[in-house]
Specification:
With about 260 residues, this protein is of the alpha/beta class. It has nine helices and nine strands. Bound molecules: NADP nicotinamide-adenine-dinucleotide phosphate. NADP nicotinamide-adenine-dinucleotide phosphate binds near residues 20, 41 and 196.
Length: about 260
């Protein structure tokens, strides 16, 4: 069977661990060539690169802090040198840097979350659009990894993070309006509670207990379950999915 992403080149931000790493592997299984962006986790990024190459796909790693435009410009230049163009951009890098009750937060805390989870997507997208436009492929896409927090307001101590993810969901809609004329689809993916290093860093307590109460399937998800959806959305099988959000949350109990 023909691989669904064969011939496509992808830039994935934050692909050293978790959902981004799983997405790199899902893309590789479908034949895409990949730039694996990372910031701190160089050893993990190298392991992802090795796994992608073992699957027979091309992969390069590049360190860039997505909140810093100069570093993102270097990432985009590197991608241009290697591939010339891209067909897929996944804005995945993000984090709940620290859970904090809103009344204990300050402006630096707020700005750090908006920078990492929203402004980063602006910086990466703005600089990557020429690479997407360079491609002659008729199907190109930008996939923004938002969060169920965009809808729920997030768990305890996550107001700044949830607000940034809400902004990212809106950014998807605005961008889709402007990029459809170039044949570029823009979609948000909204993961629920997914077991990744994110929750160790964010000190999420009792993940399975939370999932048991909040998720119809009564379990947390795996990074691979989100990655499969991202790979589908980046493929031509999703050629009529645009300007919307896809939830990968096991059925979130709202209210
Ligand atoms: N896990 C969940 O339950 C969940 C739910 C909803 C949404 N999400 C979203 O899913 C995305 C991936 O998170 P994850 O769960 O897979 O967590 P993760 O394993 O902690 O992955 C986060 C990734 O983002 C990268 N990153 C962080 N800061 C960066 C920066 N300044 N510049 C470049 N890369 C940076 C990390 O790279 P380094 O380690 O190399 O710095 C890492 O590769 C995030 O946007 C997160 O908000 C996660």
């Amino acid at each position: 069977m023909e691989k669904e992403l064969y011939g496509k080149k992808a830039l994935i931000t934050g692909a050293s661990t978790g959902i981004g790493a799983a997405t790199a592997l899902a893309f590789a299984r479908e034949g895409a060539s990949i730039i694996i962006n990372y910031n701190k986790s160089v050893e993990e990024a190298k392991k992802v690169q090795e796994k992608v190459r073992n699957l027979g796909s091309e992969a390069f790693i590049f360190k860039a802090d997505v909140t810093k435009e100069e570093e993102v410009k270097q990432l985009v230049d590197f991608t241009k040198d290697k591939f010339g163009s891209i067909e897929i951009l996944v804005n995945n890098a993000g984090d709940l840097i620290e859970r904090k009750p809103f009344i204990e937060t300050d402006l630096n805390y707020w700005r750090a979350h908006i920078d990492l989870n929203l402004t980063s997507a602006y910086i990466v997208t703005k600089n990557s659009i020429p690479l997407l436009l360079n491609s002659k492929n008729r199907d190109r896409s930008i996939i923004n990894v938002s969060s169920i927090a965009a809808i729920t307001g997030g768990g305890k101590g996550a107001a700044a993070y949830a607000t940034a993810k809400g902004g990212l969901k809106t950014f998807t809609k605005s961008l889709a309006k402007e990029l459809a004329q170039y044949g570029i689809r823009v979609i948000s993916v909204m993961p629920g509670l997914i077991i990744t290093p994110f929750h160790q860093k964010a000190k999420t307590e009792d993940i399975e207990g939370w999932a048991n109460r909040q998720v119809l399937l009564k379990r947390a998800g795996k990074a691979e379950e989100v990655a499969e959806v991202i790979a589908f959305l980046a493929s031509e099988r999703a050629s009529y999915i645009n300007s919307t959000e896809i939830f990968v949350d096991g059925g979130w109990v709202l209210g």
